[in-house]
Amino acid sequence: MAREGSIVRAADVLAVTQPAVSKSIKELETILGTELLDRTRRGGFLLPAGEIFLRHAESSLSALRQGVEQLDKLNAPDALPVRIGALPTVSARLLPEAIQRYRSQGLGATPRIVTGPTAFLMTQLRQGDLDLVIGRMGAAEEMTGLLFEHLYSEPIVFAARAGHPLAGLASPAADLARFECLMPPPGSVIRPTVDRLFLAANLPRPAAVVETVSLAFGRAYIRATDAIWIISEGVVLEDLRAGILTRLAIPTADTQGPVGISTRAGLALPPAAETLLGSLRLVAALIRAG
């Protein structure tokens, strides 16, 4: 009616009868408790209340159309991929189950997982090459222009192969100097935390160091040697539970750090990425519940 200028033309466009249009307008006015239209013989014009309602109604219809379009894109077989930056701590713990739950929904958007150092992934995210990054929160200077959603916290652990000489000892810290250690390299998210731990707990420096956060290398190396791996719990948790690796009794409660999702500030995620975000939150809730 507002676009066509008369009930007659509005009825023709909608392919309904004039009484049906008049009835719908009257019902809407009853619901809103105010008159929207000043009717004349030739048609009518909107009253101030009608003008206000029309603006909001048009916005709502536009949002609804966009929602339908986004759903069509979400389910399309050629939908754009969900681009995920994954740090080591979530690659073996949070992400696999979240991806399974996402895939079970039968969406067309393929998950594309990119790994790398924190600074690299955050730069990719900031440039729009990634939709989100999952892992420990980066340093303040790396989070400029980004938002962080905390999912859960986890500590750093000292892990070694099953049957390691220090396994089962109540206080193995003093013997660390006898063994090679795998440590995160400078510039990694957890390296400052590891350095603070050695200082605060007065831990002896290891005999030799290999710097890595590689899951594949770390698992293979410490299973074949007496090296000790200082790493985020999430990286080795499944191996610890399976008895493949053992956690040495070195207190690390003060190394708890936030694990979560980084996204670009002020920008909405694509629909498929939002769906994955829901799966990540669900799995994180299960992790928090133990």
Which key features would you list for this structure?
290 residues; D-Maltodextrin-Binding Protein, domain 2; 12 strands; elongated; Arc Repressor Mutant, subunit A; alpha/beta; five-stranded mixed β-sheet; single chain
Short description:
It contains 10 helices and 12 strands.
Query: Which geometry do the CA atoms define?
Result: elongated
Q: Tell me the fraction of residues in β-strands, as a range.
A: 15-25%
Mean pLDDT: 87
CATH superfamily of the largest domain: Periplasmic binding protein-like II
CATH architecture of the largest domain: 3-Layer(aba) Sandwich
Structural domains: how many? 3
Percent helix among the residues? 40-55%
Rg value = 29 Å
CATH topology of the largest domain: D-Maltodextrin-Binding Protein, domain 2
Number of extended strands? 12
Low-confidence stretches: none
| Series of H and E elements | HHEEHEHHEHEEEEHEHEHEEH
- CATH class wording of the largest domain: Alpha Beta
Summing up helix and strand content along with how strands pair, one would put the structural category as: alpha/beta
| Strand line-up in the sheet with most strands | 4-3-5-12-6
How far apart are the first and last residues' alpha carbons, in Å? 58 Å
Tell me about the largest β-sheet.
Answer: 5 strands, mixed
Counting H and I runs of at least 4 residues, what is the number of helices? 10
